[in-house]
Amino acid sequence: MLFKDEVEIWVTAGKGGDGSKSFRREKYISKGGPDGGDGGDGGNIVFLVNPHLRTLSHIHNRQKFYAENGENGKRKQMHGRNGEDKVIEVPPGTVVWDVETGNQLADLTEPWNKTIIAHGGRGGRGNVHFKSATNQTPFYAESGKPGESYHLRLELKMIAHIGLVGFPNAGKSTLISRLTNARPKIANYPFTTLEPHVGVMTLDDAYTSVLIADIPGLIEGAHRGKGLGIEFLKHIERTKVLLFVLDVTDEPEKHFNVLREELKAYSEKLYQRPFLIALNKKDLLSEEPSQREQFFSRIAPCFLISALTGEGLKELKIALYQAYQQEEQKEFPDDTSSSQR
């Protein structure tokens, strides 16, 4: 299925049913009073977070969604049926924006949570409510109210704890396949990864696991629209820790500086995120790059690894988990179970 992380739609909640203008018509009662029932409420537009979804591809761009209208009131004070809600399923991490105002209406992260985005109109009252001492036969009933209507933009920002950042061919796809259960396409040419991937990294203890996201590789000038990675940086905005994956055989110092500048140009908040460094493709070196490793170790925790052979990955996994745990404890200092979030 084609990956899609942004779509515009229109939604309209159901109109409330009209109240009934009815009078009792029974044998031997020549002048029956009002007995018009109320109209039913219109259905709502409801967003349901489905944890099994990973993309917005099931929603067509510029698609229109309508909830059911409420039923009109009936005679004998019978209430009209409420309209059925229109439920739209979205993946976790979906942000709902009002296109007209630019306001964020919802940030949908909790699995199976339901959120009403557009409320249905209230049903009108039947004429039985308007009987009075001076008006025994009211010929008036309320009309149902229209439902809310919105022009929406849905934006998917994947939920992950750690984000991988690197140039094309730095080995990120191979690395995430070794660290987690993700199975991205892997090949030796640029932009193999055409969509973000999220995998679960588990340590020896089954309870200690975190989500890691891999995005398409960045290149210099990405913030000006070059390459593919800039389109997917929003998928690591929610992460607490970044891992810079650098090809140790291909100017890692230069690439690191470029990556940092691209992040800064995109988001100062993302640029300030704590990070670790993985010097990948150790298996291609004929000798230990001690000076290079020392250079990066002065910047951040640095690990010389080979995603292909698995060398150094155990130490990297532990360090990643510890870094994530530290950030969790900063956010939830009094919650001893925060590391299991």
UniProtKB/TrEMBL annotation:
GO CC annotation terms, alphabetical: cytoplasm
Top EC class for this record: hydrolase
EC number assigned by the record: 3.6.5.-
Positions of GTP binding: 166-173, 191-195, 214-217, 280-283, 306-308
Record's subcellular location: Cytoplasm
A GO molecular function held by the record: magnesium ion binding
Predominant location category: cytoplasm
Domain OBG-type G: 160-325
InterPro entries tied to this protein: G_OBG (IPR031167), GTP-bd (IPR006073), GTP-bd_Obg/CgtA (IPR014100), GTP1-OBG_CS (IPR006074), GTP1_OBG_dom (IPR006169), GTP1_OBG_dom_sf (IPR036726), OBG_GTPase (IPR045086), P-loop_NTPase (IPR027417)
Coiled coil: none
Keyword terms: Cytoplasm, GTP-binding, Hydrolase, Magnesium, Metal-binding, Nucleotide-binding
Binding site for Mg(2+): S173, T193
Signal peptide annotation: none
Gene3D superfamilies for this protein: GTP1/OBG domain, P-loop containing nucleotide triphosphate hydrolases
Protein's UniProt name: GTPase Obg
Gene, per the UniProt record: obgE
